[in-house]
Every structure is written in structure tokens, then in C-alpha cells.
Amino acid sequence: MAIIIDGNATAKALKNEVKAEVELLMTKGAKRPPHLAAILVGEDGASKAYVGSKVKDCELVGYKSTLIKFEDSVSESELLKAIQELNEDEGIDGFIVQLPLPKHIDQENIIQSIHPDKDVDGFHPMNFGKMALEMDAFHPATPAGIMELLERYSINTVGKMAVVIGRSRIVGRPMSILLGSKGNPGDATVILAHSKTKELEKYTRQADIIITALGNPGFLKADMISEGAVIIDVGITRVDDTSKKGYHLAGDVDFPSCAPIASYITPVPGGVGPMTRAMLLKNTLKAYKNNY
Question: What is the pLDDT of residues 23-62, one digit of tens each?
Fold first, then answer.
């Protein structure tokens, strides 16, 4: 039976480390604590819950936080103006614009308008390019969180074959870059699979490490993996059921069938998700230190 990679416990430990570092900085005479801002557009329930959790995380570790809300009808120019004000505010170390955005707003324009030094989501092309060149940069929080889990669980990736399923700019592409970068975790041989990949099972059955980021509940099944594979499940989908809530959260991995075969596996929920929020705090601390 696989060892369960506990994202909740790891994220808690990381937050405690960040909190201790902030307390130390303040005792040494820092003028202010780190400050993270977030822009939220519209009333999407998942986005509101996620941003709300980020605000609570900031309180927990001693950060200052600012939440800026706009209606769905906000114009792109209004949003760009708010972003520019945050770019110029020396009291803001980093900020995020919660995605997705309404269809009338060009998401690429928004991402590129964020100053790279405050881009704690790690989505700006400059940060993405620096990451690809193995230069100092902000890494996207979810892939960075997965790398942190691999390191803290002492999972060796050097020379291993890794299959990343999904090529989004938020998870799949940066994940493949980080796994292939020099170091441990890293130095893996990486296959980036996607919807056009033929005979996917041929690759996943050979893989030492599989990372799924599809949003397709139960996609990865036992007959698609090899004995002892490390399985990291990024997918999280609401599936309707007859419970009081009316739904449950499901990952891309068929956990009951894969867990007995894998060596390590992340649950959903409680695996990768908590690490995404924790790494955003870590990126903000990095921005704060760069700012000072």
C-alpha cells in the first residue's frame, strides 16, 4: 500500500516556518510585515472561497493582506488601472489576480500587466522564461508545491522517468520544466502528455512518477501504472452525489485501485491543494525580501 503524501500536514509545517521567519524579521526591526494583495472579479463561488482562504493564511503567518473586489462587469481598462496602482505601491510586496476572468477581459493582457517583481503567482512570461532557464524567479505555486512535497518526502527524481499529463501554463508545462531542471527534485526524464498524445498508457506504465492535471475524475487507473510508481494528483472536480452537500471532490486518479500499487500517492482533497496556498506565501516572502 502506498505512503499517503499529506499535503495538509506539509503545508502546515511550511506555514509555521514562514510565520517564524516573519516573527524573526519583525524582532530584528523590520518596518512592516510582508503584504500580499489579491484582485477578485465577480462572484464565482470557488474563486471567492480560494481568495478567502488566502486572506486567512496571511493572518495566520503574520502578513498584511488586501482584497480588491470588482463586479463581473468591470472593464479591462479599470482592471489594468488597479493593477498599475498595485505595481507602483511600495507597501505591496506581491499580488495576484484570481483566475478565471470574465470573457470580455483579455487574460493575457492582465497577466502581462503585473510587474514581474510582484508576480507571486509566477505566471508572467518573464518569470516563466527565467524558470525555464533555471534563473532566479517566482515559480507557479502548484508545481512549486509539488516539488516541495517531493523534496520533503525524500522522493528521488534523479534519472527517473516522469510523465506529466496536462500542458496548462499553470501546472503541466511548468511542472515538466521543473522536473527536468538540474537538482533533486529534478534531473528527471520528462514526457509531457496531453489530449493529442497517442497510446498514453504506453508511457504511464513505464513511468516512475506520474503527475496528472486534467480535471477528469478517476482517469488514471491501476492498469495504467507500474508497481511502485509515485502518483501526484493535481485534478480536483466537484462530482454530484446524494450527500448533504450534494457533491464530493474527486481527483484525476482512481485512488482505490492505484493506491495498493503505488509507492507514494497524494489524496484529493488534502494533497496538492494545500501546498498551492502555502507556496504563494513562500513566494510573497521572497518578494518581500527582494523588496527590502
Answer: 999 999 999 999 999 999 998 877 888 888 999 999 999 9
* Residue 206: active-site member: no
Which top CATH class is 141-273? Answer: alpha beta
In whole angstroms, give the CA distance from residue 126 to residue 136: 11
* Residue tagged active-site, from 6, 15, 57, 98: 98
Q: What is the pLDDT of residues 121-172, one digit of tens each?
A: 999 999 999 999 999 999 999 999 999 999 999 999 999 999 999 999 999 9
Domains 28-115 and 141-273 share a fold: yes
| DSSP state for residue 195 in the 8-state scheme | T
56 flagged as catalytic: no
Quote the CA–CA distance of 178 and 152 in Å, as a whole number: 16
Note if 69 is an active site residue. Answer: no
The residue type of 123 is: F
The catalytic position among 15, 54, 118, 160 is 54
The answer to whether the CB of 131 falls within 8 A of the CB of 170 is no
State mean pLDDT over 257-261. Answer: 98
Cell of 78: 479599470
- Can you give the residue ranges of every domain in the chain? 28-115, 141-273
Fold of 28-115: Rossmann fold (3.40.50)
